[in-house]
Specification:
Blueprint lengths: L1 H34 L18 H12 L1 E2 L2 E4 L6 E6 L3 E2 L10 E5 L8 H16 L17 E5 L2 E9 L4 E2 L7 H18 L31 H17 L9 E4 L8 E4 L2 E5 L6 E4 L1 H15 L12 H11 L5 H26 L6 H19 L2 H8 L2
Antiparallel strand pairs: 1-4, 2-3, 3-5, 5-7, 6-7, 8-10, 9-12, 10-11
Protein backbone atom coordinates (compact mmCIF):
# COMPACT_ATOMS: atom_id res chain seq x y z
CA UNK A 1 0.00 0.00 0.00
CA UNK A 2 2.86 2.37 0.91
CA UNK A 3 4.54 1.48 -2.38
CA UNK A 4 1.50 2.65 -4.37
CA UNK A 5 1.07 5.75 -2.18
CA UNK A 6 4.66 6.73 -2.93
CA UNK A 7 4.06 6.25 -6.63
CA UNK A 8 0.96 8.44 -6.66
CA UNK A 9 2.72 11.12 -4.61
CA UNK A 10 5.62 11.09 -7.08
CA UNK A 11 3.13 11.26 -9.99
CA UNK A 12 1.29 14.21 -8.42
CA UNK A 13 4.52 16.14 -7.81
CA UNK A 14 5.65 15.58 -11.40
CA UNK A 15 2.23 16.60 -12.72
CA UNK A 16 2.22 19.75 -10.61
CA UNK A 17 5.69 20.68 -11.86
CA UNK A 18 4.58 20.15 -15.46
CA UNK A 19 1.57 22.43 -14.89
CA UNK A 20 3.80 25.16 -13.43
CA UNK A 21 6.24 24.77 -16.31
CA UNK A 22 3.38 25.04 -18.79
CA UNK A 23 2.03 28.17 -17.12
CA UNK A 24 5.47 29.80 -17.12
CA UNK A 25 5.91 28.82 -20.77
CA UNK A 26 2.55 30.39 -21.61
CA UNK A 27 3.44 33.57 -19.74
CA UNK A 28 6.85 33.75 -21.39
CA UNK A 29 5.34 33.18 -24.84
CA UNK A 30 2.78 35.95 -24.35
CA UNK A 31 5.34 38.43 -23.05
CA UNK A 32 7.63 37.69 -26.00
CA UNK A 33 4.68 38.09 -28.34
CA UNK A 34 3.83 41.45 -26.81
CA UNK A 35 7.45 42.65 -26.83
CA UNK A 36 7.86 41.78 -30.51
CA UNK A 37 4.49 43.19 -31.54
CA UNK A 38 4.59 45.95 -34.17
CA UNK A 39 4.60 49.18 -32.16
CA UNK A 40 2.85 50.98 -34.99
CA UNK A 41 -0.31 49.01 -34.17
CA UNK A 42 -1.98 50.01 -37.41
CA UNK A 43 -5.52 49.58 -36.08
CA UNK A 44 -4.88 51.24 -32.73
CA UNK A 45 -6.28 54.64 -33.64
CA UNK A 46 -8.71 53.47 -36.33
CA UNK A 47 -11.92 55.29 -35.63
CA UNK A 48 -14.83 52.87 -35.78
CA UNK A 49 -17.04 55.34 -33.94
CA UNK A 50 -19.45 57.40 -36.07
CA UNK A 51 -18.25 60.91 -36.90
CA UNK A 52 -21.17 63.27 -37.38
CA UNK A 53 -22.50 66.65 -36.31
CA UNK A 54 -25.77 67.94 -34.92
CA UNK A 55 -27.14 68.90 -38.35
CA UNK A 56 -26.65 65.33 -39.62
CA UNK A 57 -28.48 63.91 -36.60
CA UNK A 58 -31.38 66.30 -37.14
CA UNK A 59 -31.56 65.45 -40.87
CA UNK A 60 -31.81 61.71 -40.15
CA UNK A 61 -34.51 62.28 -37.52
CA UNK A 62 -36.48 64.37 -39.99
CA UNK A 63 -36.02 62.22 -43.09
CA UNK A 64 -36.44 58.76 -41.52
CA UNK A 65 -38.77 59.47 -38.60
CA UNK A 66 -40.42 62.81 -39.30
CA UNK A 67 -39.25 64.33 -36.02
CA UNK A 68 -38.38 68.03 -36.32
CA UNK A 69 -36.69 70.54 -34.00
CA UNK A 70 -36.00 68.28 -31.05
CA UNK A 71 -33.63 69.02 -28.19
CA UNK A 72 -30.42 66.94 -28.51
CA UNK A 73 -28.19 65.73 -25.67
CA UNK A 74 -25.22 63.43 -26.35
CA UNK A 75 -24.91 60.50 -23.93
CA UNK A 76 -21.77 58.77 -22.64
CA UNK A 77 -20.37 55.91 -24.69
CA UNK A 78 -17.34 54.17 -26.16
CA UNK A 79 -17.63 53.14 -29.81
CA UNK A 80 -21.26 54.07 -30.54
CA UNK A 81 -22.79 57.56 -30.57
CA UNK A 82 -26.02 58.05 -28.63
CA UNK A 83 -28.26 61.11 -28.42
CA UNK A 84 -31.26 61.67 -26.17
CA UNK A 85 -33.95 63.58 -28.08
CA UNK A 86 -36.76 65.43 -26.30
CA UNK A 87 -39.26 68.23 -26.92
CA UNK A 88 -39.81 67.56 -30.60
CA UNK A 89 -41.79 70.48 -32.04
CA UNK A 90 -43.35 68.67 -34.97
CA UNK A 91 -43.94 65.19 -36.41
CA UNK A 92 -44.46 65.08 -40.17
CA UNK A 93 -44.75 61.29 -40.44
CA UNK A 94 -47.32 59.03 -38.80
CA UNK A 95 -44.87 58.03 -36.08
CA UNK A 96 -45.81 58.85 -32.52
CA UNK A 97 -43.08 60.55 -30.50
CA UNK A 98 -42.75 58.80 -27.08
CA UNK A 99 -43.60 60.86 -24.01
CA UNK A 100 -40.15 60.55 -22.44
CA UNK A 101 -38.31 61.02 -25.72
CA UNK A 102 -36.05 58.76 -27.74
CA UNK A 103 -32.44 57.72 -28.02
CA UNK A 104 -30.99 57.67 -31.52
CA UNK A 105 -28.05 55.29 -31.67
CA UNK A 106 -25.36 55.39 -34.35
CA UNK A 107 -23.65 52.00 -34.19
CA UNK A 108 -19.91 51.61 -34.76
CA UNK A 109 -18.72 50.53 -38.20
CA UNK A 110 -17.72 47.02 -37.02
CA UNK A 111 -21.05 45.97 -35.48
CA UNK A 112 -22.91 47.71 -38.32
CA UNK A 113 -21.59 45.09 -40.75
CA UNK A 114 -23.16 42.25 -38.77
CA UNK A 115 -26.79 42.29 -39.91
CA UNK A 116 -27.56 39.05 -38.06
CA UNK A 117 -26.41 40.68 -34.81
CA UNK A 118 -28.58 43.75 -35.46
CA UNK A 119 -31.59 41.48 -35.97
CA UNK A 120 -30.71 39.61 -32.78
CA UNK A 121 -30.78 42.87 -30.83
CA UNK A 122 -34.26 43.68 -32.09
CA UNK A 123 -35.56 40.19 -31.29
CA UNK A 124 -33.96 40.25 -27.83
CA UNK A 125 -35.49 43.55 -26.73
CA UNK A 126 -38.90 42.32 -27.88
CA UNK A 127 -38.41 39.11 -25.89
CA UNK A 128 -37.24 40.97 -22.77
CA UNK A 129 -40.19 43.35 -22.99
CA UNK A 130 -42.62 40.41 -23.24
CA UNK A 131 -40.84 38.82 -20.25
CA UNK A 132 -41.40 41.86 -18.05
CA UNK A 133 -37.87 43.28 -18.35
CA UNK A 134 -38.01 47.03 -18.89
CA UNK A 135 -35.60 47.78 -21.76
CA UNK A 136 -35.26 50.06 -24.80
CA UNK A 137 -37.83 49.16 -27.47
CA UNK A 138 -37.25 50.11 -31.11
CA UNK A 139 -39.23 52.90 -32.74
CA UNK A 140 -39.79 51.86 -36.34
CA UNK A 141 -38.79 54.34 -39.04
CA UNK A 142 -41.13 55.39 -41.85
CA UNK A 143 -40.02 52.35 -43.82
CA UNK A 144 -41.22 50.03 -41.04
CA UNK A 145 -37.64 49.08 -40.10
CA UNK A 146 -36.09 48.83 -36.63
CA UNK A 147 -32.79 50.11 -38.02
CA UNK A 148 -31.34 51.44 -41.24
CA UNK A 149 -27.78 51.37 -42.60
CA UNK A 150 -26.52 54.79 -43.68
CA UNK A 151 -23.26 55.94 -45.27
CA UNK A 152 -21.90 58.61 -42.93
CA UNK A 153 -18.61 60.38 -43.60
CA UNK A 154 -17.11 57.52 -45.54
CA UNK A 155 -18.32 54.59 -43.39
CA UNK A 156 -21.49 52.55 -43.06
CA UNK A 157 -23.27 52.85 -39.72
CA UNK A 158 -26.52 51.25 -38.63
CA UNK A 159 -28.91 53.77 -37.09
CA UNK A 160 -31.73 52.82 -34.78
CA UNK A 161 -34.10 54.74 -32.52
CA UNK A 162 -35.28 53.40 -29.16
CA UNK A 163 -37.79 54.67 -26.67
CA UNK A 164 -36.01 56.47 -23.84
CA UNK A 165 -36.30 54.85 -20.41
CA UNK A 166 -36.88 57.60 -17.88
CA UNK A 167 -35.07 57.20 -14.58
CA UNK A 168 -31.74 57.61 -12.86
CA UNK A 169 -28.77 55.43 -13.72
CA UNK A 170 -27.06 53.59 -10.87
CA UNK A 171 -23.81 55.48 -11.41
CA UNK A 172 -25.56 58.59 -10.02
CA UNK A 173 -26.43 57.10 -6.63
CA UNK A 174 -24.58 55.95 -3.53
CA UNK A 175 -25.06 52.19 -3.38
CA UNK A 176 -26.18 50.96 0.02
CA UNK A 177 -27.04 47.45 1.17
CA UNK A 178 -30.63 47.72 -0.12
CA UNK A 179 -29.59 48.76 -3.61
CA UNK A 180 -26.85 46.11 -3.71
CA UNK A 181 -29.40 43.47 -2.74
CA UNK A 182 -31.85 44.64 -5.40
CA UNK A 183 -29.05 44.68 -7.96
CA UNK A 184 -28.21 41.06 -7.13
CA UNK A 185 -31.87 40.06 -7.40
CA UNK A 186 -32.14 41.81 -10.76
CA UNK A 187 -28.99 40.23 -12.22
CA UNK A 188 -30.17 36.80 -11.05
CA UNK A 189 -33.61 37.32 -12.56
CA UNK A 190 -32.17 38.64 -15.84
CA UNK A 191 -29.87 35.61 -16.02
CA UNK A 192 -32.86 33.28 -15.68
CA UNK A 193 -34.71 35.12 -18.45
CA UNK A 194 -31.72 35.22 -20.83
CA UNK A 195 -31.06 31.48 -20.44
CA UNK A 196 -34.34 30.85 -22.27
CA UNK A 197 -33.37 32.95 -25.29
CA UNK A 198 -30.95 32.34 -28.12
CA UNK A 199 -30.18 33.80 -31.54
CA UNK A 200 -27.44 33.01 -34.04
CA UNK A 201 -26.56 36.70 -34.12
CA UNK A 202 -25.18 36.49 -30.58
CA UNK A 203 -22.82 33.63 -31.43
CA UNK A 204 -20.11 36.02 -32.51
CA UNK A 205 -16.58 37.22 -31.92
CA UNK A 206 -16.72 40.38 -29.85
CA UNK A 207 -13.67 42.12 -28.41
CA UNK A 208 -15.59 43.27 -25.32
CA UNK A 209 -16.73 39.71 -24.52
CA UNK A 210 -14.90 38.62 -21.36
CA UNK A 211 -13.59 35.38 -22.86
CA UNK A 212 -11.95 37.48 -25.60
CA UNK A 213 -9.96 39.60 -23.14
CA UNK A 214 -6.67 37.79 -24.02
CA UNK A 215 -6.96 39.48 -27.43
CA UNK A 216 -6.46 42.93 -25.84
CA UNK A 217 -2.86 41.97 -25.07
CA UNK A 218 -1.94 43.08 -28.57
CA UNK A 219 -2.85 46.61 -27.49
CA UNK A 220 -1.04 46.57 -24.13
CA UNK A 221 1.57 49.04 -25.41
CA UNK A 222 -1.00 51.82 -25.05
CA UNK A 223 0.43 52.02 -21.52
CA UNK A 224 3.84 53.66 -21.21
CA UNK A 225 4.66 52.16 -17.81
CA UNK A 226 6.25 48.71 -17.85
CA UNK A 227 4.68 47.87 -14.49
CA UNK A 228 1.19 48.46 -15.83
CA UNK A 229 1.87 46.36 -18.92
CA UNK A 230 3.24 43.46 -16.88
CA UNK A 231 0.31 43.65 -14.45
CA UNK A 232 -2.18 43.28 -17.29
CA UNK A 233 -0.20 40.49 -18.97
CA UNK A 234 0.04 38.51 -15.71
CA UNK A 235 -3.64 38.83 -14.86
CA UNK A 236 -4.89 37.93 -18.33
CA UNK A 237 -2.59 34.92 -18.54
CA UNK A 238 -3.95 33.78 -15.18
CA UNK A 239 -7.46 34.22 -16.59
CA UNK A 240 -6.58 31.98 -19.53
CA UNK A 241 -5.02 29.34 -17.31
CA UNK A 242 -7.56 29.31 -14.44
CA UNK A 243 -10.77 30.05 -16.34
CA UNK A 244 -10.59 29.42 -20.09
CA UNK A 245 -8.58 26.19 -19.77
CA UNK A 246 -11.33 24.87 -17.45
CA UNK A 247 -14.27 26.33 -19.34
CA UNK A 248 -15.85 22.90 -19.84
CA UNK A 249 -17.00 23.21 -16.21
CA UNK A 250 -19.06 26.32 -16.97
CA UNK A 251 -22.59 26.57 -18.36
CA UNK A 252 -23.25 28.81 -21.36
CA UNK A 253 -26.13 31.06 -22.41
CA UNK A 254 -26.87 34.46 -23.87
CA UNK A 255 -25.59 37.12 -21.46
CA UNK A 256 -25.95 40.90 -21.38
CA UNK A 257 -22.19 41.34 -21.22
CA UNK A 258 -22.05 44.88 -19.81
CA UNK A 259 -24.05 45.18 -16.60
CA UNK A 260 -22.35 48.37 -15.48
CA UNK A 261 -23.91 51.15 -13.45
CA UNK A 262 -24.52 53.34 -16.52
CA UNK A 263 -26.74 50.63 -17.99
CA UNK A 264 -28.97 50.10 -14.96
CA UNK A 265 -32.00 52.35 -14.45
CA UNK A 266 -33.02 52.81 -10.83
CA UNK A 267 -35.96 54.39 -9.02
CA UNK A 268 -36.67 54.40 -5.26
CA UNK A 269 -33.73 52.00 -4.71
CA UNK A 270 -35.31 49.47 -7.09
CA UNK A 271 -33.81 48.43 -10.42
CA UNK A 272 -36.32 49.65 -12.96
CA UNK A 273 -34.71 48.46 -16.19
CA UNK A 274 -31.60 47.69 -18.20
CA UNK A 275 -30.34 49.47 -21.30
CA UNK A 276 -27.74 48.98 -24.05
CA UNK A 277 -27.72 45.53 -25.64
CA UNK A 278 -24.63 46.30 -27.69
CA UNK A 279 -22.42 43.80 -25.85
CA UNK A 280 -24.84 40.88 -25.68
CA UNK A 281 -23.13 37.63 -26.63
CA UNK A 282 -23.51 33.87 -26.21
CA UNK A 283 -20.93 33.11 -23.54
CA UNK A 284 -20.36 31.66 -20.08
CA UNK A 285 -23.33 32.42 -17.86
CA UNK A 286 -21.24 33.21 -14.78
CA UNK A 287 -19.58 36.09 -16.65
CA UNK A 288 -22.65 38.31 -16.26
CA UNK A 289 -22.41 37.85 -12.49
CA UNK A 290 -18.66 38.56 -12.53
CA UNK A 291 -19.02 41.64 -14.75
CA UNK A 292 -21.84 43.05 -12.62
CA UNK A 293 -19.76 42.50 -9.46
CA UNK A 294 -16.77 44.11 -11.16
CA UNK A 295 -18.71 47.31 -11.86
CA UNK A 296 -20.23 47.27 -8.38
CA UNK A 297 -16.67 47.36 -7.05
CA UNK A 298 -15.53 50.03 -9.53
CA UNK A 299 -18.51 52.21 -8.60
CA UNK A 300 -17.42 52.23 -4.97
CA UNK A 301 -13.93 53.33 -6.00
CA UNK A 302 -15.31 56.61 -7.32
CA UNK A 303 -14.62 57.56 -3.73
CA UNK A 304 -10.88 58.20 -3.47
CA UNK A 305 -10.85 56.74 0.05
CA UNK A 306 -12.76 53.57 -0.84
CA UNK A 307 -11.67 50.11 0.22
CA UNK A 308 -12.82 46.73 -1.01
CA UNK A 309 -14.44 46.10 2.36
CA UNK A 310 -16.76 49.06 1.69
CA UNK A 311 -18.43 47.28 -1.26
CA UNK A 312 -21.72 45.57 -0.44
CA UNK A 313 -20.54 42.28 -1.95
CA UNK A 314 -22.30 39.78 0.32
CA UNK A 315 -25.69 41.41 -0.18
CA UNK A 316 -25.25 41.25 -3.93
CA UNK A 317 -24.12 37.60 -3.94
CA UNK A 318 -26.77 36.39 -1.53
CA UNK A 319 -29.54 38.07 -3.56
CA UNK A 320 -28.19 36.71 -6.85
CA UNK A 321 -28.08 33.17 -5.48
CA UNK A 322 -31.57 33.51 -4.03
CA UNK A 323 -32.94 34.58 -7.41
CA UNK A 324 -30.89 32.32 -9.69
CA UNK A 325 -28.97 29.52 -7.98
CA UNK A 326 -26.12 28.85 -5.53
CA UNK A 327 -22.65 29.34 -7.02
CA UNK A 328 -20.59 26.17 -7.03
CA UNK A 329 -17.04 25.91 -5.68
CA UNK A 330 -15.37 26.26 -9.08
CA UNK A 331 -17.40 29.35 -9.94
CA UNK A 332 -16.48 30.95 -6.63
CA UNK A 333 -12.81 30.11 -7.19
CA UNK A 334 -12.65 32.05 -10.49
CA UNK A 335 -14.64 35.18 -9.62
CA UNK A 336 -11.61 37.13 -8.37
CA UNK A 337 -9.70 36.36 -11.57
CA UNK A 338 -12.70 37.22 -13.77
CA UNK A 339 -13.21 40.56 -12.03
CA UNK A 340 -9.54 41.47 -12.39
CA UNK A 341 -9.51 40.38 -16.04
CA UNK A 342 -12.57 42.52 -16.81
CA UNK A 343 -10.88 45.56 -15.28
CA UNK A 344 -7.78 44.90 -17.40
CA UNK A 345 -9.90 44.51 -20.51
CA UNK A 346 -11.69 47.78 -19.77
CA UNK A 347 -8.45 49.61 -19.02
CA UNK A 348 -6.80 48.56 -22.27
CA UNK A 349 -9.79 49.13 -24.55
CA UNK A 350 -10.63 52.38 -22.78
CA UNK A 351 -7.10 53.67 -23.17
CA UNK A 352 -7.12 52.55 -26.80
CA UNK A 353 -10.37 54.46 -27.44
CA UNK A 354 -9.06 57.57 -25.69
CA UNK A 355 -6.18 57.82 -28.17
CA UNK A 356 -8.62 58.59 -30.97
CA UNK A 357 -10.90 60.80 -28.85
CA UNK A 358 -8.92 62.78 -26.28
CA UNK A 359 -12.02 64.81 -25.40
CA UNK A 360 -13.99 61.81 -24.08
CA UNK A 361 -13.90 62.46 -20.33
CA UNK A 362 -16.14 59.45 -19.71
CA UNK A 363 -13.43 57.09 -20.96
CA UNK A 364 -10.56 58.93 -19.27
CA UNK A 365 -12.29 59.02 -15.87
CA UNK A 366 -12.52 55.22 -15.75
CA UNK A 367 -8.74 54.82 -15.96
CA UNK A 368 -7.83 56.16 -12.51
CA UNK A 369 -10.71 54.33 -10.87
CA UNK A 370 -9.82 51.08 -12.63
CA UNK A 371 -6.17 51.11 -11.60
CA UNK A 372 -6.98 51.91 -7.96
CA UNK A 373 -9.55 49.12 -7.75
CA UNK A 374 -7.23 46.67 -9.51
CA UNK A 375 -4.41 47.42 -7.08
CA UNK A 376 -6.72 46.74 -4.13
CA UNK A 377 -7.90 43.46 -5.68
CA UNK A 378 -4.34 42.33 -6.40
CA UNK A 379 -3.32 42.99 -2.81
CA UNK A 380 -6.04 40.78 -1.35
CA UNK A 381 -5.49 37.03 -1.33
CA UNK A 382 -8.00 35.06 -3.35
CA UNK A 383 -9.15 32.97 -0.40
CA UNK A 384 -9.86 36.15 1.54
CA UNK A 385 -11.77 37.58 -1.43
CA UNK A 386 -13.74 34.33 -1.72
CA UNK A 387 -14.79 34.78 1.89
CA UNK A 388 -16.43 38.07 0.85
CA UNK A 389 -18.57 36.09 -1.59
CA UNK A 390 -19.85 33.69 1.05
CA UNK A 391 -22.63 34.38 3.50
Amino acid sequence: MLKYSGFFFFFFVCFERRVIQFYNLLLSHTINKINTYDHKMADLTENISPVLNKDQVEDILKNDYGFINGKLQELDGYDDKNYHITEVKKCIEEIEFPTDGIVIKFINSIDSKNLLFLDAQTKLTQYLDHSGIFCPISVLNKYGESYRSLFINGKTHAVRVNKYIKGETMNKVKINSEISTNFGLYVGHLTSILKKFDHDGFHRNHLWALEKCPEVLKFVDVFDQEKQRQTIITIINKFQFDVLFNADQLEKSVIHGDLNMNNMIIKDNKILGVIDVGDVVYSFTIFDFAIALCYLILHEFNDNNAKLSDVQIKNFVEAYEKQYRILNDFEISIIHTCVCARICQSLVLGKKSSLRDLSNNYILSTQKIGWRALEELINIKEDKFNMLLKH
